[in-house]
Amino acid sequence: MDATAIVRITERVLARLDLLNSARERALAETRQITRLSANAVRAVHRGEFAEAGALLEEARRIKEALTAHLADYPAIYWSGYVQDAHKEYAEASLTLALVAGRPIPSPETLQVEDAVYLNALGEACGELRRHILDLIRAGDLARAETVLAVMDEIYGVLVQVDYPDAVTNGLRRTTDMVRGVLERTRGDLTLAVEQQKLSDALAQARRAVGLGEPGQPS
User: Fold this and answer.
1) What pLDDT sits at residue 212?
2) Of 64, 67, 141, 169, which has the fewest Cβ atoms less than 10 A away?
3) Is the pLDDT higher at 48 or at 194?
4) Distance CA 205, CA 198 (A)
5) CB within 8 A of 37, min separation 6: which ones?
């Protein structure tokens, strides 16, 4: 029995495992950064701070691309759930910025994310679009809210046509079900707001017709 050969072989194995563990630790730390930057970018979008959101996403993109290059020799880590989840958060934030700011929609190739990641991110961006629509309703901008709702409807129409196993789409069916629920609730909220606005306009018109003026004003 060649004990020396066993030592040499196991030393190489342990060296490779050490590199694998270092790559994993880096991936864990940097995916957390990507997720945090993406979440902050979404918050900036809802505040209307599009330049700030863009700067945060640029930093997230830089970290993501460097990590992807580093993991080229570690496909098991690259394809792990937490790395792809961070990519999804980045893609969702990027899509949210584009949709809310009225910019061109980035493609999977532009964002450098996998197709399944992109489709799930597109679906989850609908949750942020709902929040945007509710902000628009509060601001009284119902026309813009209807435009954004049409975008949500278009996204759902695309996602519902995707018919592949969950192993291929990373659970897109669940995301699509979520989008349907969000879309229905948002449509209901906007319909109610439109009807209330119509009623308010009709009352104001009636008051003017009888010379009462606007509510709160002296007759």
Assistant:
1) 62
2) 141
3) 48
4) 10
5) 56, 57, 59, 60, 63, 90
Query: Of 96, 107, 106, 112, which is closest to residue 49 (Cα–Cα)?
Result: 96
The whole-angstrom distance between residue 19's C-alpha and the CA centroid of its chain comes to 32
What is the structure's pLDDT at 219?
47
- Half-sphere exposure (CA, 13 Å, Cβ side) for 79? 7
Average pLDDT, the chain: 91
Tokens of 30: 């940097």
The string of DSSP codes covering 153-214 is HHHHHHHTT----HHHHTSHHHHHHHHHHHHHHHHHHHHHHHHHHHHHHHHHHHHHHTT--S
Amino acid identity, position 147:
T
Encode pLDDT of 201-218 as tens digits: 677 777 777 776 555 555
Q: Identity (one letter) of the amino acid at 78?
A: Y
Read off the tokens for 33: 């950064």
Q: pLDDT tier at 3 (50, 70, 90 boundaries)? A: confident
Answer for the pair 37, 57: CB distance below 8 angstroms, yes or no: yes
- Predicted confidence band at 7 (pLDDT cuts at 50, 70, 90)? confident
Domains along the chain with CATH numbers:
1-75+84-112 (1.20.58.2140), 114-207 (1.20.58.2140)
Residues 6+ positions from 58 with CB-CB distance below 8 Å: none
DSSP character for 140? T
pLDDT in tens, 20-42: 889 999 999 999 999 999 999 99
